[in-house]
Design brief:
The chain is elongated and about 110 Å long. The longest helix has 38 residues. 30% of the residues are buried. It has nine helices and 13 strands. It is of the alpha+beta class. The protein folds into two domains: 211 residues, no CATH class; 46 residues. A hairpin with a 5-residue loop joins strand 1 and strand 2. The termini are far apart.
Length: 264
Amino acid sequence: MTFLKGRFARLSVVACAALLLTSCRVDQTVSLTVEPNGSGEVTVVITADKAIVAKAPNLAADLRTDDLVEAGWEVTKPVKTKTGGLTVTLVRSFRNPAEANIALSQVNGPKGPLHEMVVTRSGKDTNSQWSLAGRLEVTGGLEAFIDDAGLELVGAAPYLANVQEAGLDLGDAVGITFTAALPGTIDQSTGVKTDGAVSWAVPMDGSKIDIATTSTNVDVVSSISRVSKVLLLGLLVLWIAATIVLLLLVGNARQRRSGRIPRP
């Protein structure tokens, strides 16, 4: 849960604290949505459960997101969940695949969970192929949830000794899901397809998941429109030609009736 090596680290420390209580949990969803024209959004939703809010009642007031806003992210105010937890939503819009890759690279530091994420597009506007490559991996255990500056300052990941002593599992307290919605129909993917998107559960044990995914987007409406324009143009030309021929025939007929046959 390291984000932008800045304010997201504050949320990460809370996630680490959750490991001290078996009933505490922090869930995070990172969603990539790409439109057919290449624009879209990267959305990050972080939810701390009721137990964490009870343990840190000033959590909402302590969050500082100024540097996120400066980096182009829209940050909503913390919202209470129906179960007493707290949710924070962050959105970064992009205009093309290159900007999408920048947004994805800002979600975390070098230790995960997103690694070498790249969105690419090829083909024509009416028949394009999309590709999403990269891997999901959390390395370094709790150190993946604190930025490098914080790690250098404190010398170790927060609560590391407590977690090691208790023998707790990172995955029991922290859950991360990555979801991608690419234009068109998914051709192949390593994730689970649901409602036009593909999702993966990020492994918390240090293992890796390849997210290789491709899709094909055929703009049927645009293709039909282009074909229709060509057909209409052809019909217009035929109609003009037929009109000219008809006028000539009528003119010749009138001349014959008047006894004036045009010379060749």
